[in-house]
Structures are given as C-alpha cells and as structure tokens.
Write a structure and sequence with these properties.
Elements (H helix, E strand, L loop, with lengths): L9 E7 L5 H12 L4 E3 L8 E8 L6 H6 L2 E9 L1 E3 L8 E4 L6 H9 L3 E5 L8 E2 L2 E2 H6 L9 E14 L7 E8 L5 H12 L3 E11 L2 E2 L6 H6 L21 E3 L2 H8 L4 E2 L2 H4 L8 E7 L2 E9 L3 E7 L6
Parallel strand pairs: 3-12, 14-16
Antiparallel strand pairs: 1-3, 2-3, 4-11, 4-12, 5-6, 7-10, 8-9, 10-11, 12-13, 15-18, 16-17, 17-18
Helix pairs in contact: 3-5
Length: 311
C-alpha cells in the first residue's frame, strides 16, 4: 500500500552533520516528518556541517530568498599545504614552510573584507555547456573561469592552533554574500601569506536571519515522538522575516490572492510609510498570504501567493 504523505507547510532548521549530501539530509528530514513536498535553502558540501533550512509545502515558494541571503560560516584552514580541491578531500599539490606570525595571519584575513573578485573552483557545481565543473575536474580538465564579484561582509580570526608549528590551523568566522566559496577564500588567504592553505573544516551557522541555535540534528528529530515532530516546523514566514509586513482588509486580501494589483487604502499603507520600494510580506490578520512588490506611496503587485487553503 502506497504511503500517504502529509501536506506540511513550514520551515525546519536542520543541523546537517558531516558526511551526507544536502539532498541526503533533506530526504532524511522529509521521511522523519512524512512530508509530501520539501526543498532546502542552499547546498552544503558533504564535508561541511551546519544550518540547512528545509522548506515544506508552500514554504518552498520562498526558497529563492534563502539562496540570495548572506551566509555565515566558521571555517578552519590548514596553512602550508595546498590541495587540488582546496579542501581536505583533495590530493596534496604542494607543501611550503610557514613563517607567519599571528598578526600577519589576522591582517591577511582582514585584507579580504569588502567587495572582492573570486575565481570559482574547478571542484564546484557551476556548469559549463550543461556540465558541472567538478565533472571536468574529475577528468583532469581545467577550464578558464572568470572571476566573479562577491562580498565578504565580515571576517575575523577566532583562533590559531600551533600544536603542529609547521602546519598551523587558523579558525575564522565570516559572513559572505551568495556565491562565495569558502574553499577559495582559504586558498587565497594562504597565497597572500605565501605558504598556501586548504580548508579542513566548515560549519554554517547562519543563513540570512536564520541561525544554528534553533536547529535540530537528524538524530534529535528522529528521537521525537512521530506525532510531536510537526512542532519542530516553524511558520512559513520564518523565511521572510527581513521583509516589511503589510496587513490587508478582507476586500483587498480577496483581490490579492486572485493576483490583482492593488492601490492600498490609508490603513493598509500606514505601516509602509517609510518602507522603500521592493518586496514585502502580505497578511490577512495574522495569516500569511504571500509576498508582493511595493511601490510607494501605495501600489502593491502580488509576487508569490500561497495556495488558497491558506486563505
């Protein structure tokens, strides 16, 4: 007999362990909740752990917002060794002596803060002619890649371990824009220091405003009584907390869910008096209806509308 999946709408903050792929972790969470539809908000490599937001049902409509959000990571670099992948899973390609003091390491990291140009690694999922770069890399093919603009919003050294003085390990915390490769950042820091480096550990601690402190490991999720697991799923608008809210009266709400552009009345417009043009989250009372594009002083154009059962 075919298993009947549940129509769950909301967001689970999952703490992905090292080892499984992001899709493996997604499917494990989906099975734990017996959910019909799910997607994740931003891939983590198998060697990485940390925050993997899982969207169920109607929440999947807003995953794009997570993909565009800033990410915060804690990373550990090993100085003095380079690999062909930029991380500990690759083959060693070079070894150099390390002679830099703590102050030089700190300065090298801080030099990357701000808007920079970054060349994507060959071992990445970016596609060329419909084929991911990592597939070319596995065939021993290295392609020219154009540098892309990314932003390192903040970067700080949080520890330097010199247990092995020839191969110090540097721990850092950094908040970056979408499309930033921490492996490449590790390599670039190593080159700036003149000794090379590769990434040995990576943990994502935040995606936009979502943080790891509220996340469940797969094991913890599965230990909860099946009937109570639904309580781990947060509201859909967890994904939209950075957007200004607007509440519509019933007549305007009815038109909004039909996809009609609206001119807001004075009551609905009031909370957006100082809001810039751009996306907003739209409610009927305390129930989320979807997102819209707001144009001052009061034009609202539906962008993503939740299914009618949310009405």
């Amino acid at each position: 007999m075919k298993r009947v999946r549940l129509n769950i709408d909301g967001v689970l903050l999952l703490d992905k362990p090292i080892g499984p792929s992001s899709n493996d972790a997604l499917q494990r969470a989906r099975r734990a909740l017996n959910a019909a539809k799910a997607g994740h908000g931003g891939t983590l490599d198998p060697m990485a752990s940390g925050l993997l937001p899982i969207a169920f049902g109607e929440a999947t409509k807003f995953l794009h917002d997570l993909l565009d959000a800033d990410k915060t990571y804690e990373a550990t670099l090993c100085l003095g060794i380079t690999t062909d992948t930029g991380d500990a899973e690759g083959q060693i390609t070079g070894e150099r002596p390390v002679a830099c003091e703590d102050a030089a390491i700190d300065a090298a990291c801080r030099a990357f803060q701000g808007d920079i140009q970054q060349v994507p690694p060959m071992h990445s999922a970016l596609k060329r002619d419909g084929k991911p770069l990592y597939a070319y890399a596995r065939e021993g093919i290295v392609l020219e890649r154009e540098a892309r603009p990314v932003t390192i919003h903040s970067i700080e050294v949080i520890g330097i371990d010199r247990t092995d003085p020839q191969r110090p390990r540097v721990s850092l915390r950094t908040r970056v824009s979408k499309g930033t490769y921490i492996r490449t950042l590790a390599e670039d820091i190593g080159e700036r220091l003149g000794c090379g480096a590769h990434l040995v550990a990576l943990r994502r601690i935040a995606v936009g405003r979502l943080t790891i402190d509220r996340a469940f490991t797969p094991e913890a999720l599965e230990q909860i009584d099946p009937e109570a697991r639904i309580a781990t799923v947060g509201a859909v608008d967890m994904l939209l907390s950075g957007l200004p809210p607007v509440a519509l009266v019933d007549s305007l709400a009815d038109r909004f869910i039909q996809g009609q552009r609206l001119v807001l009345d004075n009551v609905s417009r009031a909370p957006l008096a100082n809001a810039p043009a751009g996306p907003v989250r739209v409610y009927r009372g305390d129930r989320l209806l979807g997102t819209a594009l707001f144009a001052p002083p009061g034009l609202l154009a539906p962008q993503r509308v939740l299914a009618t059962h949310h009405d």
